[in-house]
Amino acid sequence: MQGNAACAEGALAAGCRFFGGYPITPSTEIAETMARRLPKAGGVFISMEDELASIAAVIGAAWTGVRAMTATSGPGFSLMMENIGYAAMTETPCVIVNVQRGGPSTGQPTRAAQGDMLQCRFGSHGDYSIIALTPNSVQEMFDLTVKAFNLADRFRVPTFLMTDEIVGHMRERVTIPDSVEVTPRHPLAEGSLPFEAGDDGVPGFAPFGSGRSVHVTGLTHDERGYPDTTDPAAHDRLVQRLVAKVESARRDIADYEVVNPDARTVFVTYGPPSRTVEQVMRDHPDESVGHLRLRVVWPFPEFALEEFPNAKTFLVPELNMGQMVREVQRHVDRPVVLIPKIGGELHTPAELVRALEVHR
Amino acid sequence: MRHEVRFSGYGGQGIILSAVILGRAAALYDGKYAVQTQVYGPEARGGASMGQVVIDDAPILYPEVTDPDIYVIMSQQGFEKYGVRARPDAVMLLDTDLVRSRPGCRYCEVPATAEAKGVLGREIVANIVMIGALVTATGVVSREAIERAVLDSVPKGTENLNSKALKRGFELGERACNL
Nearest chain A Cα to B22, which residue? Predict the structure, then answer.
């Protein structure tokens, strides 16, 4: 099965019943699969007029109580930024898939990149936090899509599957279970205000039609949901909570693999470059070379870097000119070397072997 | 053992479908691992199209093809763009009438398009003839696996035609690819 099809199957298995999207290479097969499958599953597929409307429709659908998603690539992702902030501000659980291609602008429609990793975290204006997952196989396109829906609902936050043309279009064998674990949304407790959160900072959810009257606004709002746009304390309380509910759960959300924790030279990867590193480590077994492979990149799990206490150098191969490498640099006091690659092709094993020879 | 198989031709010949069928045969019916990738762009509308498959007994880590050991080339432009640099010990199957050049590696000429057009009456199954010849020539997947994968992948109502094309490919492979 193709990666994009596995993503759609994961969404369906997770109970997604709304897709609003505007087809764009290399994500189109997700929309195609959802268009074919959703109506038969009792869901709704809408081909929207553009990406601004797509994410808006997804937010609206989520507020009717269904699991909702969209899928796009760089140019469409840029258009979604304003309403991604709206989703963050209104604490709307939704899943946004970005099958990344070469940018900037329309760039390379049929080639892979990881150029939108910081845009995903910081692309909308203002302070907020999100969750982002990075699959490296067709199986993970299925598994991490399911996981994205569960995280989105648990934290009431827009959650991103940050994949790319390589994984999206690759075909591999995939195992689809009969059922998947679905974390239900916390309902809004009787007597609680709609945006009143407990210790975890996540309010219960009262979708439209559930009998509770909820006012939803992108303006700074109080616990009732009503605008309160001038009181510094109200803004501080709300936005601090929006960020903290994700950032304070970093260890809980984190999902990563550690190989050779005693290593002196450590690759830090996410997405397909991790497979090149795995190949290099299989072809040249060497305990002085380690690998930290991130399946969740946002919130960034900086504590994972501490799993390599003897590391002298961190190597970060990315399909961009340096994005997640900044997070690694921010958190360690040892040399961090970017191994950038743009143009659409994955780092080859030979390229990473060379990088190891130069930097170890 | 890791095999890297590259198919190239022009858009519309079913080049990428050929790669998908081969990967499916290996991964679903021969109990191996397979990853299929492609280069696609404006080429898909008539230029040189390319699809490739990695097949291995062990899980496949690096998913891309870097240095194929098996080629199937069905156009001159495909040869020039994706086949001309084949390593000397690679095996290349060429469509006799569509590729003028000959490579430096081992090769065999398969008149797949002529056979599809003349004998089978449908040029569109030339890629299936080629797949049959490929399986005979290289044994990269079993005949049983490729038969099932072809039948899975072709439109309903064309199963007989495609089965015939595949068998014809097996025979042509035996005759033309004495490697």
Answer: A171
Range of the domain at B156: 3-176
List, for residues B15-62, the tens digit of each pLDDT value: 999 999 999 999 999 999 999 998 877 655 667 899 999 999 999 999
Q: Which residue of B has its CA nearest to A345?
A: B64
Indicate the pTM of the whole model: 0.96
pLDDT score recorded for residue B176: 86
The token pair at A177 is 């279970």
Mutation test of the interface with chain B: which of A171, A176, A276, choosing the one with the most B Cβ atoms within 10 A? A171
Do residues A168 and A99 make contact, with C-beta atoms less than 8 angstroms apart? yes
A-chain residues within 8 Å CB-CB of B50? none
Number of structural domains, chain B? 1
Least Cα distance to B69 among B128, B4, B165, B161 occurs for: B4
pLDDT tens readout for residues A281-330? 999 999 999 999 999 999 999 999 999 999 999 999 999 999 999 999 99
Least Cα distance to A154 among A119, A197, A98, A102 occurs for A197
Q: Chain A: residue nearest B31 by CA?
A: A173
With contacts defined as CB-CB under 8 Å, which chain B residues touch A273? none
Q: Which domains does chain A carry?
A: 1-253 (3.40.50.970), 255-359 (3.40.50.920)
Residue B138: CATH number of its domain: 3.40.920.10
Interface mutation vs chain B, best among A170, A172, A276, most B CBs within 10 Å: A172
Comparing CA positions, the residue from A49, A36, A167, A152 lying closest to residue A98 is A167
Residues of A in Cβ contact (< 8 Å) with B28: 173
Give pLDDT tens digits for B91-101. Answer: 999 999 999 99
